């Protein structure tokens, strides 16, 4: 057993030294905070007369985010990315390219579950050199009786991943010296980013919100009456859910720039907000919307372009191929089920 312990220690030192050479860089999308804990017990590795204390074969603490690294879990279904860091094991990769030979899918979010594999990168590199001791370093995130889950309301993770160098199956063999063993994800969570978005018609339309560059277009003297202020913790750039705070008492709509006085009024329209353009005016303005639910204020700005005429081709109501003019713009119809009638020449 002493020989087994020495071999394991040598492998870990090798993995750590080599793994430390991998460069990782945190991006703005690295949204997982907290720590993982690997403290599996193995009675065979406790020294004589010393009780197990949770540190015999486990990985110890694994940091999910630092100044130059991090892990990202998408808000919807999709692959994880990035790196975590362990002082004992070095870098742990969550990228698809890290686990191509782990025998399954890459680390991936499916609904509110994590599936697939992460990877101890030092072991992967040692495999290339033939010095991994038969280990692969694959960390399974879900199996028949275990797995990592996400609380959609809080972003908190729960459950366990597993590294066992025995076909990654915790049911094969009782000696977890054949791998790192269980890894507890319950001390990590997805950091939610609260955002205010201005959307047309619905907070869940899936369209792009209005911004300073994605302006609202209104014809002079006309109005748009379907605006929504949507407050959400989704990292999506689309109008994709959230709380409707359009006419909340803590929400304020105001002009911040209107040099040509093109905004006639900002008013409530039932559950929506209505912006009316002044008559006989053209130009560009900006509107700020702020929401202050507590000590923090969340705000966003969007542009308004008021012109003498807003093109509206309404192409689906014109026969396919028909060329016509709308607001001095040439349009081509797209309606496919038109019935053409021959007209007798006059």
Task: Please give a structural write-up.
By secondary structure, this protein is mainly beta. It folds into 3 domains: about 1-190, no CATH class; about 195-305, Immunoglobulin-like, CATH 2.60.40; about 315-345, no CATH class. It is built from 2 helices and 27 strands. Strands 1, 2, 3, 4, 6, 7, 10, 11 and 16 form a 9-stranded antiparallel sheet that branches. Helix 1 crosses helix 2 (about 120-130). It is elongated and about 80 Å long. The termini are far apart. Mean pLDDT is about 80; it is low at about 1-30 and about 170-175.
Secondary structure blueprint with pairings:
Layout: H1 2-19, E1 32-38, E2 60-63, E3 65-66, E4 69-72, E5 78-79, E6 81-86, E7 90-93, E8 108-110, E9 113-115, E10 117-120, H2 121-128, E11 138-140, E12 142-143, E13 146-150, E14 157-163, E15 181-184, E16 188-190, E17 195-200, E18 216-219, E19 223-232, E20 243-244, E21 251-257, E22 263-269, E23 272-277, E24 283-291, E25 298-307, E26 323-326, E27 329-332
Keywords:
346 residues, mainly beta, Immunoglobulin-like, nine-stranded antiparallel beta sheet, 2 helices, disordered N terminus
Alpha-beta classification: mainly beta
Helical percentage? under 10%
List unreliable stretches of 5+ residues.
1-28, 171-177
Give the overall form: elongated
Report the total helices: 2
Rg is: 29 Å
Report, as a whole number of angstroms, the end-to-end distance: 106 Å
Order of helices and strands: HEEEEEEEEEEHEEEEEEEEEEEEEEEEE
Number of domains: 3
The profile of the biggest β sheet is: 9 strands, antiparallel
Mean pLDDT: 80
- Fraction in beta strands: 35-45%
What is the β-strand count? 27
């Amino acid at each position: 057993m002493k020989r087994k312990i020495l071999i394991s220690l040598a492998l870990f030192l090798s993995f750590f030294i080599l793994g430390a050479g991998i460069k990782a860089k945190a991006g703005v999308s690295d949204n997982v905070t907290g720590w993982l804990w690997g403290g599996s017990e193995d009675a065979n590795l406790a020294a004589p007369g010393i009780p197990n204390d949770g540190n015999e074969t486990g990985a110890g603490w694994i940091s999910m985010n630092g100044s130059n690294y991090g892990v990202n879990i998408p808000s919807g279904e999709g692959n994880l990315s990035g790196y975590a860091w362990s002082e004992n094991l070095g870098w742990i990769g969550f990228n698809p390219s890290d686990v191509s030979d782990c025998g399954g899918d890459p680390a991936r979010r499916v609904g509110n579950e994590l599936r697939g594999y992460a990877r101890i990168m030092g072991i992967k590199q040692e495999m290339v050199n033939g010095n991994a001791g038969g280990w692969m370093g694959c960390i399974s995130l879900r199996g028949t009786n275990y797995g990592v889950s996400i609380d959609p309301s809080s972003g908190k993770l729960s459950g366990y991943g597993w590294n066992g160098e025995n076909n990654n199956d915790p049911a094969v063999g009782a000696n977890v010296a054949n791998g790192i063993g269980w890894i507890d994800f319950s001390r990590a969570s997805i950091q939610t980013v609260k955002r205010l978005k201005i959307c047309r018609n619905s907070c869940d339309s899936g369209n792009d919100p209005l911004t300073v560059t994605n302006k609202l277009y209104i014809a002079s003297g006309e109005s748009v009456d379907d605006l929504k202020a949507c407050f959400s913790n989704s990292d999506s750039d689309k109008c994709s859910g959230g709380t409707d705070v359009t006419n909340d008492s803590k929400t304020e709509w105001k002009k911040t720039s209107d040099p040509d006085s093109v905004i006639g009024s900002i008013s409530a329209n039932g559950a929506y907000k209505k912006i009316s353009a002044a008559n006989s005016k053209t130009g560009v303005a900006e509107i700020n919307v702020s929401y202050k639910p507590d000590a923090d204020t969340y705000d966003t700005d969007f542009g308004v372009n008021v012109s003498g005429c807003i093109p509206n081709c309404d192409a689906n109501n014109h026969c396919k191929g028909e060329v016509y003019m709308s607001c001095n713009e040439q349009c081509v119809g797209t309606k496919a089920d038109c019935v053409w009638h021959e007209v007798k020449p006059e």
